[in-house]
TrEMBL record:
Species for this entry: Cryomyces antarcticus
GAT domain mapped to chain residues: 189-316
Keyword annotations from UniProtKB, A to Z: Protein transport, Transport
SUPFAM superfamilies: ENTH/VHS domain, GAT-like domain
Name listed for the protein in its UniProt record: ARF-binding protein
Biased composition (Low complexity): 356-374
Amino acid sequence: MAARDRFGGFPSEPATTPLQRHIQNACDPQNFEPNLALDLEIADLINAKKGNAPREAAVAIVNYINHRNPNVSLLALSLLDICVKNCGYPFHLQISTKDFLNELVRRFPERPPIRATRVQNKILELIEEWRQTICKTSKYKEDLGFIRDMHRLLSYKGYVFPEVKREDAAVLNPSDNLRSAEEMEEEERAAQSAKLQELIRRGGPHDLQEANKLMKVMAGYDTRHKTDYRAKAAEEVGKIQQKAKILEDMLQRHQSGDEIKEGDVFEELANALASAQPKIQKMCEEESDDTEAVAKLFEINDSIHRTIERYKLIRKGDLEGASKIPKGTLGTSGAGVTKGPDNELSLIDFGGADDSAPPTAASTSSTAASQPASKGNALEDDLLGLSMGDDNYGVGGGISLGT
């Protein structure tokens, strides 16, 4: 505790900001178990403050992970897990830096112990979970290369990663909840801002070049990679239409009167449709100047409502009542709407944009960031471009990613 921490400051120093004080309280050694409410409050605070908050939190949390008291370390790891699952790309960008990852495994010996500690097992579990989820499915996975590198380095050293529970990892996979064009644009701006701040913080020549390119995109000077959010929103609505069609087809085949059980696929689809309705209504407000788009959205919203009503009646066993609701996934008013087979609306086209537009600069980082230069002929250097023990960032641990 007396030694200076490599990731910024002394763990024993008093917290100076509200965020640091919250993290200090969450990792208090007198806590015998994680305080989920406080952990979620910290995640909300990071999301609300934005700016430097993700890095500030990552720095503070990893300090506590390296605490000599294993209870404090486990409390910090639980908090880290909550932040990763609730704070999105700006926080993911911080846990994927060399500095953070080297700190995370600072107490890992060069050779794996016969029996790993609870803290080591939890760290291995988290790295494995990140590799299987955000490193594969995130829109910004190219920015998370050092997580993959650390996983490969630990595997090479002989560390065995525990199996990740499917339900634990599911939270980190992309959500299929409907998002409006405005929400997608806001998310993209937040990601670009976080990426820009991190590039400027690093300050290397290549980082500053990337920052300059990203600023041009954010300022609107570079439109080559501009995303058409209305087209993307149309694509999202198309996915909801498909879910409605699947549920409707299942309901029409469900004529035997068998009970629909709670938690089955029927309920899952119905809940997804119900949660989409408020978003579709919001999209109608955003598209108020486009009467054709609004007409299509209202038509889809009405059809979803009918499908949900049919589901509720069939679940109650009222097959007669359900049969009175017009069949078919979508409605029949047809105002300004082109229909295909089975009365299904075609994918909405808000202004005829190409929804295959290339991703924005925030989603395409240089691969150089995740491929450090090889430094020697050692197997680990040849394998990963990583180096062992020559990291000049602070004291240094037994295992670290190269500079």
